[in-house]
Amino acid sequence: MSARLTPEIAALYARTALGHVTREYPNKLDHVLAGPGDALGPRALHPIFFGSFDWHSCVHGWWTLFTVLRLYPDLPEAGRIRNLADSLFTPENVAAETAYLARPESRGFERPYGWAWLLMLAAELERHGDGRAAVLRPLTRCFAQRFIAFLPLADYPVRVGTHYNTAFALRLTLDYAGAVQDGALAGLCRERALRWHSSDRDCQAWEPSQDEFLSPALMEAALMRWVLDHEAFTAWFESFLPDLGRREPATLFLPALVSDRSDGKIAHLDGLNLSRAWCWREIASSMPLDDRRRPVVLEAARAHLDAALPRVTGDYMGEHWLASFALLALLAGE
After folding, report:
1. N or C: fewer beta carbons within 10 Å in the chain?
2. Domains: count for the chain
């Protein structure tokens, strides 16, 4: 498959996302019950983001739809995307999603992965300029405020390769903060990133774990690329992965094997390959063209894309979310 987003790939991802953002079941809720009255189904709890197996996947399914719609507004699926969005992204539905967050039991709801993806969706809507960003803004502000309240309490990073990874959350949040020119949020993200990671050296890259979809090592590097200027990042990265030119640590250059794509956790490893490709391509874009390590980095990105792009669709356990990570990888560095 192409290493660039094409209209054909965009249409495939649009059809895939349209097939799951309103598929209510099966569904894995992140829902704390305070009493029997809270035992409600996905759509009753979340009138916009009730599909795609879980709340956060529905959010980034919509990010996928709006991203391909902006890039290819004449896609055959464009009318379906707009009509469905008009029916779901209403002030009333946004108010219900926002009210859910006001429950005391919802303090940790989707932290930090879902928070970051909601902000990433908001950033994409800002780029459209058609009023939908304003409709979503009450919910967007809630999640931005949650980051502002939470990050000063987060003394330590979370380096796992799953939803709790803090480098991934900050990387997406910085994208949002830049789109809306939220200097306070951007400054707080940068301060935490530097506090957590500026002294990291000689990364051993003990990965992958069995159900990771993020590379703890490369995700950290992709974040630091955003928070450091070019010269500072170059120096930091050389210390972080000093043996990169010799393809060490070797595990970062080898696509993960996926033994059973019908198992939702094992299927995460397709996402790991896509997110590694995304990170490698972002890192490559910061390197001078004559950097001897750049071909090594681009080769690693291509190997991971080749392993994962044909697997984006085919089984619902991956299909309900992998297109978003494929988009991140295909658009990286452009």
Report:
1. C
2. 1
